[in-house]
Design goal:
Layout: H1 2-14, H2 24-33, H3 38-49, H4 58-73, E1 77-90, E2 94-100, E3 104-106, E4 108-110, E5 122-129, H5 132-137, E6 147-150, H6 162-166, H7 168-171, H8 173-179, E7 184-188, E8 214-217, H9 219-230, E9 236-241, E10 244-258, E11 268-273, H10 283-303, E12 304-306, E13 310-315, H11 323-332, E14 339-342, E15 350-356, H12 362-372, E16 378-379, H13 391-395, E17 400-405, H14 410-413, H15 426-443, E18 447-449
Parallel strand pairs: 5-6, 6-7, 7-8, 11-13, 11-14, 15-16
Antiparallel strand pairs: 1-10, 2-3, 2-9, 4-8, 5-9, 10-13, 12-18, 15-17
Helix pairs in contact: 1-12, 2-15, 3-10, 10-15, 12-15
């Protein structure tokens, strides 16, 4: 079956564009997946019956139990939880006001691991910086005892490439401000929308750096602060933020499998992350990803038995530092994997496929590119792949696939109260399932159909 499907795809991909039929099994699986309901059922159930799933909390524990029940009910084998410990941070009250020269409230949320203000809040002079690099270059005396504001506006990109650069205001800003003696820091949300919804997200104070209150303003509020600062008058800001560290808690990775025909074959890992931030219900980030990989795996399982097993991993505690990925690598990183792939960029359509299968499997990568063309997916690189929870293992030498989703509007919703089920387009979700089903049909070596009737 492996040779039959791959040989057919290789022949098709070498033929002129007008004569490139897919192997019948791949075509049937792909077309059936475009009518998929499994993914919506998983996503609707997770976001409705569990809701927000902050890492290490009781809600994330309920999500793990829910996930095991759901995966077993879908027919997957060996559904289980691999637990690990982690420090737990929880949100408290969060408010901000300009008190002078133009008094008004601001929409704010705490960043992960933020320190707390005194119970009555704190007030101080606000000093603004257009970028994180300006803050880094500022003399300590310009910051000491003040509340820092960093703007650092992030543009939209299809591939999300702006996130790494502009996200530095969140990831580095609090530690930089604390080292310079700031009383607190507020940043422009790392997002691209214009709703009054601030975007949360993780930051971790550098070793030896004292935690300070660290919050994100909604983008309209951040721009309002910029206008106020440009008036040239002294600006004062009052903050009330009461998050806290609650001690050591528990998270875990939920794992299930589709057995393969070859007991010695390495698995194809398909991953997502189960935890979410607490402001919305985590539909886009990353309930959709969990729904997509489960639905595609279910469609392969329903069709028969693949040569290579499929390993579904719903990683825990991704949002607070990729802790589930680190635990999985510690337990399974030396095991062979036929490929690793992750869905964690929302629920919009897949538009490009990248891969890193190695020189010996370049033909397989080209065959995959050909098979995905009917779904409007263009060929990408064959020497790179990644995903938050799988990148470290791919970098260590494991093969990988990246089905790249359109992220143009992803950061409108990312880490906000707007990350809810109604934002998911069912047609786009189905296109994702079709792409992942196609990928699995090829990388697992083809599916041996279930036998019917008497022997």
């Amino acid at each position: 079956m492996t040779r039959t499907i791959l040989a057919a795809l290789l022949a098709a991909s070498a033929a002129p564009a007008s004569a490139q039929p897919l192997p019948p099994q791949v075509q049937e699986l792909q077309q059936a997946a475009l009518q998929d309901d499994y993914a919506w059922d998983v996503l609707e159930g997770l976001t409705t019956e569990v809701g927000p799933r902050l890492a290490g909390t009781e809600a994330e524990a309920r999500a793990r139990d829910w996930a095991v029940r759901k995966l077993r009910a879908m027919g997957f084998s060996n559904a289980r939880i691999e637990t690990f410990a982690l420090p737990v941070w929880v949100r408290g009250e969060e408010k901000a006001w300009i008190t002078a020269p133009f008094p008004q409230p601001l929409a704010i949320t705490a960043l992960g691991n933020s320190g707390a203000t005194p119970p009555q809040g704190l007030e101080g002079e606000l000093v603004g910086f257009d970028t994180i690099d300006e803050l880094i270059a500022a003399p300590d005396e310009a910051v000491r005892g003040k509340i820092v504001f960093v703007d650092h506006a992030m543009p939209k990109t299809q591939d999300g490439s702006s996130y790494g650069q502009f996200g530095r205001a969140r990831s580095e800003g609090p530690s930089v401000a604390s080292r310079k003696g700031a009383a607190a820091i507020v940043i422009r949300s790392i997002g691209t929308d214009y709703h009054r919804n601030p975007h949360t997200g993780v930051q971790t104070f550098a070793p030896g750096v004292a935690p300070i209150p660290a919050g994100a303003l909604s983008i309209p509020d951040a721009e309002q602060v910029q206008r106020i600062l440009k008036r040239g008058r002294a600006v004062r800001l009052r903050l009330l933020m009461t998050p806290r560290q609650t001690g050591t808690g528990q998270s875990g990775n939920v794992i299930a499998e589709v057995p393969g025909r070859d007991p010695n074959a390495a698995p194809v890992l398909v991953g997502c992350h189960l935890d979410s931030w607490d402001l919305g219900t985590g539909a886009i980030d990353d309930g959709a990803g969990c729904a997509i990989v489960a639905a595609a795996s279910k469609r392969i399982m329903d069709a028969g038995r693949p040569l290579h097993p499929i390993r579904i991993v719903w990683f825990g505690a991704e949002e607070v530092g990729l802790l589930g990925a680190k635990d999985y690598k510690a337990r399974h990183g030396t095991e062979p994997h036929h490929a690793l792939a992750e869905s964690d960029f929302g629920a919009d359509r897949v538009w490009k496929v990248d891969s890193k299968l190695g020189d010996a499997r370049e033909a397989e990568a080209k065959a995959l590119q050909h098979a995905l063309r009917p779904l409007g997916i263009v060929p990408g690189a064959t020497n790179l792949a990644g995903g938050p929870d799988v990148s470290e293992m791919i970098a260590a030498g494991h093969p990988g696939i990246s089905l790249r989703q359109d992220g143009t509007d992803y950061f409108d919703l990312h880490h906000t109260p707007d990350d809810t089920l109604d934002k998911v387009d069912p047609a786009a979700l189905r296109q994702n399932v079709a792409a992942w089903t196609t990928m699995l049909a090829i990388l697992t070596g083809g599916v041996e159909p279930k036998r019917t009737g008497r022997r």
